[in-house]
User: What shape does this take?
Amino acid sequence: MDQERWTAVDRYFTDLLVPPDSALDEALKASAAADLPAISVTPNLGKLLMILAQIHGARNILEIGTLGGYSTIWLARALPRGGRLITLEAEQKHAEIARANIDRAGLSDVVEVIVGKGLETLPKLAAKGAGPFDLIFIDADKPSNPDYFAWALKLSRPGSVIIIDNVVRDGAVIDAASEDASVQGVRRMNEIIAAERRVSATAIQTVGSKGYDGFAIARVMG
Assistant: This one.
């Protein structure tokens, strides 16, 4: 199996199960036109996030890492009437593109984009009494993953679900001697999760148009 086959299979399932959507398509086009990194979740994973949020009945969602707002739109569409989503983005340029994409999708009234480094904005959220969040999606700078997970726990409740993207790193996650800060950030987070008695967690490997990676999912137990 190679990247060409993985991409073809992704395209097959996307064409079959993820119908064309103008708001989502335009979000990707606008992000590309603005030279944002091409690291948004795939359509299949975006829809999975939406389905997981719907299954969980999430009314209050936190996203750490907005980029162009593609995953934000998927998650916000899972919200019931009266639900809210807060998404944190470090880069002003990315946040502006995301706000335009979210507005085009008709979701500005339920999504708040906060600009600033996550490790600076998360304490402010906690101080304002934000949360607890029913679902938290972490998809930002990987070296900070241990701290993001710690804040996710603080802003959660028993029953909250925490999803962390990009935890396989093309298989490099098993290399304890890796000099890649992103790999080490993921490894430290995984070790924290493994030792944390308040959560039940697992991780899934994936292959697709974005290569070989995966995500972790944890449920807060109490």
